[in-house]
Amino acid sequence: MNIVISNTSDKPIYQQMFEQISAQIIKGELTRDFCLPPIRTVAKELRISVITVKKAWEELERQGFIYTMVGKGCFVAPLLPDELGSKRNVLAYEKLKKDIEYYKVLGLSLSDILDLIKRCY
Amino acid sequence: MKNLLIKEFKLALNPGTYFYLACSAMLLIPSYPYFVAFIYTFIGFITVFILNRENKDILFTASLPIRKRDTVKARISTIAIIELMQIATAVPFAVIRGLINPEGNAGGIDANPALFGFVFVMYALFNTIYFPMFYKTAYKVAWPLIISCSAVTVYIFAVEIAVQSVPVLKTYLDTLDAGYAVTQLLVLIAGIAVFVLSAVFAFKKAAKRFEKVDL
Amino acid sequence: MEMLSVQNLSKRYEKFELKNVSFALEKGYIMGFIGRNGAGKTTTLKTMLNLVHADSGKAVVFGKEFSDNELAIKQQIGFMFGGANFYPKKKLKTVTSVVRRFYNEWDDAAYERYLKRFDLDEDKKVDELSQGMKVKYDLTLALSHNAKLLILDEPTSGLDPVSRDDLLELFQELIEDGERSILFSTQITSDLEKCADFITYIKDGKIVASTNKDDFLGSYKIVKGTVEQLTEETKHRLIGYKKNAFGFAGLIKTENLPSGGCLDVFAADIESIMIYFEKEQKD
């Protein structure tokens, strides 16, 4: 499991953690029943607040990426390939939606954006 | 309480305090105001009180799981113990002086039981004034010392002058003649009683004041 | 479980007043207590611990009122004031030999372990230790009597950045098992960014905010804009702002952000929150 925290980013730390871990689950780098390290250990290692880690874990659980077994810890949820696919789409959709808001402010039309995406991809 | 006394002796007192006990040997000087032998120990006390302020002794002690009034009790007991040690070390010198030099003391009261009684009262006077005054702030050291030491000085002069100028006192108290031992022992017992009562009074008053102090 | 709850503490001095100070700290967390010099940090900590008598209010520690259970509670807390420079001429082992007598749960094995862990030499005198080592020695004493709550007044003051970082890392290590809590005051905001779970911010004897760090940071934003955008209405919304020749920057509560989004909005860090608060409504 890899987490890289940026303290200078505008994005809250819990959000950074959520995005990175969920991406690793979707990409299959973290497989089902992988045991996530204890919250307090993660906090200590990354030098961040216990509450921040808790929040990230809660978000992962809420969105079905992990499950908690009381007294044992948090594990990567057993997701079927199509579940993974749909979760991936949800994440991509959310991100795209935010980005498109910004493009709209810049005055780009749908075809402009599609054009740009094609050029970048 | 035992732990606090250990704290006092291991941390709060400086080795210099014991040095002044040697001053008891001044009783061997043939002609001398013997009260002086007992007042050097005050220099030891002054050093302790000032150093303790620098060492934040009060705050350190307050951080321990103890009652605030017990710190006062421990401190007064410690000083009283040193006063008693000073007197105890002086006793053999007084005896030796009497043996090797049966001549009376031309410089002041003879080294007899009455002198020790007066010394007990002197220490009592210091304790009664210093501690309640100091624990009013638990920070200001100078004024309580100035006032208590001045009172002690006045007291010493008063006793010496009285004993030298009042014939009855001179006869009964300023002599090594064993014939007057009973009267002198009574003075000694009275002195001890005053010493004990003053320590209790000083503790009660000081503790009450210290409870109110914001550290 | 609440380890500490401070409820409406008030204390009036001639020139300063602590006004209804309240906050709470849960078991297993670190709370940073910030404020400027003279804001009331030390007075709050001292009043909590009954070193200073409160005019009203109380502190509840481990579920019990402090002033009624002072001795029992002190057995289980460790506290440190003002650089911990007690008895500079005494050897550590002398100080320890005295301190250990006062605690029922003194643990010699733990003491030895922490000495080793912190590289403390018992034969050294207190004033031979660096400031950082002094703090570590104090922590050693607290941890060896199994203190569950550590209350530290400016433990990082006077430390160089490396020792400071080292100490903050240690704080996090100490709470890792979730059994201990730490309340420490500081004026260095990066201390909090590095290790606090909760932040309590005091200003002029009053608590401005006491909440978890993420919420604290999330509830304020920095906004920037042109001088023209700094209208009376905008000024009214801002907690504090600074004007310069090319525009202005200010602090705003997230909930007060004007809709429309013509101002540039940035995440606020603790330092800027504090600075703008202290510059409240000044040009």
Describe the structure.
- The complex is a heterotrimer of chains A (121), B (215) and C (283).
- Chain A is built from five helices and three strands; from the N terminus they run αβααββαα.
- Chain A has 121 residues and is mainly alpha-helical.
- In chain A, strands 1-3-2 form a three-stranded antiparallel β-sheet, with helices on one face.
- In chain A, a hairpin with a 3-residue loop joins β2 (66-69) and β3.
- The radius of gyration of chain A is 17 Å and the shape is globular.
- Chain A starts with 12 loop residues before the first helix and ends with a helix.
- The model of chain A has no long low-confidence stretch (mean pLDDT 87).
- Chain B has 215 residues and is mostly helical.
- Chain B contains nine helices and no strands.
- Chain B is elongated, with a radius of gyration of 18 Å.
- Chain C is elongated.
- Chain C has helices at residues 41-48, 70-75, 92-99, 108-117, 131-144, 161-174, 189-195, 213-218, 232-237, 270-278; strands spanning 2-12, 17-26, 30-34, 56-61, 64-65, 77-80, 149-153, 181-186, 198-203, 206-212, 220-225, 238-244, 247-253, 264-267.
- The model of chain C has no long low-confidence stretch (mean pLDDT 90).
- The interface between B and C is medium-sized, with 20 and 27 residues.
Record field, number of beta strands of chain B: 0
User: How are the strands ordered across the major sheet of chain C?
Assistant: 6-7-8-3-9-10
Query: N-to-C SSE series of chain B?
Result: HHHHHHHHH
DSSP strand tally of chain C: 14
Number of helices of chain B: 9
Q: Rounded to an integer, what's the Rg of chain C over CA atoms?
A: 21 Å
**Could you list the spans of chain B in which at least 5 consecutive residues all have pLDDT below 50?**
none
What would you call the shape of chain C? elongated
For the CA atoms, what is the radius of gyration of chain B?
A: 18 Å
Instruction: Classify the oligomer.
Output: heterotrimer
Q: Determine the mean pLDDT of chain C.
A: 90
Q: Tell me the distance between the termini of chain B.
A: 21 Å
The residue-averaged pLDDT of chain B reads 91
Report how far the terminal alpha carbons of chain C are from each other: 45 Å
